[in-house]
Structures are given as C-alpha cells and as structure tokens.
Model the fold of this input.
Amino acid sequence: MAIPAWDDPELGTMKRAALWLITVIGEGNTFTKADVAEAFPGVTQADRRVRDLRSHGWQIDTHRQDPSLGQHEQRFVAAGEPVWEPGKGSGRASSTISETRRREILLADGNMCRSCGIAAGGEYGDGFDTAQIDIARRPVVRADGSEQVELVAECNRCRIGGRSKKVDFGQIEVGISGLGSFERDVLAGWIEKDQREFSKVERLWAVYRTLPAESRERFREALATSGI
Done:
C-alpha cells in the first residue's frame, strides 16, 4: 500500500510527523526541534505530536536513552504502528510514563536490563561506565497474532543503536511445547530464581561472540595452545 505524502494538509499532525520521519529523516538518523518547527511551520505542538508516536511503538531516542546524542538531538530509531492507516493511531495510552509506573516496572523487572541482564549501577566488562536502567517499549506479538507494545527495563547501552526487538509469543509457545520434562523443570527453576548461573565455557563463548575478527583469531590460537 502506498503511503500518503507527509505534507498532505488533510492529515493530522501526528500522522504527518510519522510520515515525515519515514520519508524525510529515515531510520537511524537524527533531527532536532528546530527541524520539526521548520517542517511544520505554524503548527502548534508539532514536537509533542512527534513524542506521541512513542505510545504507538515508535522508538525515538533522546540523549537520555542514547548518550551520544546532543541535548537538542533526537534519533529516529524504528517505526511503529502505521498511524496514518484507517483505524490506526488512536486508543493508546499517553507516551508519558509516570514515576509511579516507572518504579513499578523497575521493581517487576528486578531493576535490571531485560536485554543483557546487567543490574542498575553494574559495571560493564570494559570498565568504562556503569549501567543506567530506563524504561523501553517493546512490541509483543501475541499467540493470536495481535500486537501490543509493552514496557520493559533496559540499560542505556542496549538502547543505543536501536536494538529493536519484537517478541513473538506464538514462537515462544512452540518452543515451550517442544521441551522435555527435565528441560521444563530446569527452565522453571531459572524462572523461580529469576537468574541462571552460566558455566565457564558459556561465559567464554559469550565473550568470544562479542570480539572483533582479529581478537577472535587470537582467542582461537590461545584455545588451541592452552593445556599443551
């Protein structure tokens, strides 16, 4: 389906803002409030309509989520619901998360990043900085095929670069149904404790996967010569 022109005056400001982000800015690129004002001259609260897109699954980061951004910059990371389509763009909650709701989510998620597992204030392996935990919006595809944006705790590093995740619960249920009784018991134990102890081999494998090509080669050489 062809999308409408972003400057179509018949469309509402939020719909035009969504189309402007897709067709003019492009995913992964940055913009400022001044850019919004220039694109929507004479339109009051155009910047707020851009922010409203977050409640429809659009990921638009500020310096709070992505420290590499300037104070006045925002990054269009990923598009969400096509709000310009009929029946879309209404009935969602406000994009603003209250402090009470924020605390509830952090408490429910153990005040840790649900993408990488690091806790608030935890040190990353490179020793450069510590983790800051914020609230992210994650699209979840239900078993019946419907999609809903849910809130989850995520660290500042996992948000940088726009790791756009979509959870498909239908696939999860298929995976669960394929487990044997022992595997189910093991998984239930991890869920009960909300943690899993990784073996030395698994931890080293995780490190290896993150290394650049040259370092992976040194890793393989070290493995081949160890114990000789």
Remarks:
- The CA atoms of residues 3 and 85 lie 9 Å apart.
- Residues 198-228 form one domain.
- DSSP finds nine helices and six strands in the chain.
